[in-house]
Amino acid sequence: MNVSQLVEPDRVHRRVYTDQQIFDREMTQIFEHVWVYCGHESQAPQVGDYYAFTIGRQPMFMVRGKDRQIRVLHNRCPHRGVQLCGNQKGNAGSALVCSYHAWSFHLDGRLRSIPLQKGYDGTRVNAENPDCSVKPAARVDSYRGFVFASLSATGPSLLEFLGEAKVAFDDMCDRSPVGEVEVVPICHRVIQHSNWKFFMENQLDALHPSVTHQSTGVAAGRIEKKLKEETGAAPFYYHYLSAFASKFEQWDAVQTINFPRGHGILKAYMGLRPQDPDTRAHEALLVKAYGAEKTEEYLSRSIHHVLVYPYLSVQSPLQQLRCLRPLAPGKTLSEIWHFRLKGAPEAIYRRSLWYYNLVNSPATMVNADDLENWTKGQWGLESDGGDWVSFHRNYGGDTEEAGVIYSNNGTSEAVMRNQFRAWSQYMADPQ
Ligand code: FES
Ligand SMILES: [Fe+2]
Questions:
Q1: Fewer CB within 10 Å, N or C, the chain?
Q2: What percentage of the chain exceeds 70 in pLDDT?
Q3: How far is the CA of 169 from the centre of ligand 2 (A)?
């Protein structure tokens, strides 16, 4: 298959969203090759804690060992293949024990014991044979508590892979006076009936909110206005919703920065630095911890979303993280997480929780309206109604410096063009 014929600088063929062969190749050359987000270290705080997930098509889990290291292992028993962790998360105790014939493994994956071991005398089954231990991910690393693994022994380091997109984790953690976040152990899981690329494109698509989210934004804006008139102020969280109904021109005035490997940033469009007592108390803690200059540097970063291509959308100012696990060309699992800033006032955490529930959870109209578009998009692209998907908006109008594409039009489809540039490179030649 000649993938290069499916992607042109200003348009892509619909097959990249619908074709099983393309999807399989994406799994091999992208997801099972790059650094993939596993979870946060705080999801496995105790020795023996594990958390299961997938990297591409591979069932994996991370587990904290007796040496307190987190390892990422294939969720497969070396005996006859049964998954070792049947639950999503839990504590394995002092060893991983298979539910089928009780082969047991140390928490680092090494074979520990087999019932009636003498039955294997003279065979190739022994503790020295690596085939008898649980297979580890080729590489594991973490950045500021966020754990990643790569199934490829070669390729860029985690920091090289993240590049400028690592600011997602800095911006999140630097807002804590101790420089750390911890996971809120509740994760919304949504199956999206659409290709994973719909989600990634949508995150920095600043043209869609005032259309797709109009009903929510306008309704919230009306109540916000009424409350302000009647009481002098409206709760902060109304702004999370009313901002969606900003005018096209306001959205277009926002910038995007599009990095190599498909990563990108949508700069801030919401006034997220109010001057209320809670914010002032939070800022005072940061000044105490870091000094005034650093605090200013941390809080003046202009970020709304950071994308780590091809699977992560991080809204660092509000400690939100969404992670994609593609399942099929037209089926994608998204995990929706939020985090608590360690050492920050409870009121600041409440803002994160409000945003989580009002904007990102499956219970909101915001998320539901996006999901409906993507499902209908998938249906359209599976039809014979046309072969090409257009990314012409502001084509030719972007500035590129050292591989970074800057767009002063928030609604520019530079975002999608940049993602497909990375996609083509991955699909042509693993990096
Ligand atoms: S399959 Fe795991 S012990 Fe047999
Ligand atoms: Fe949206």
A1: N
A2: 99
A3: 22
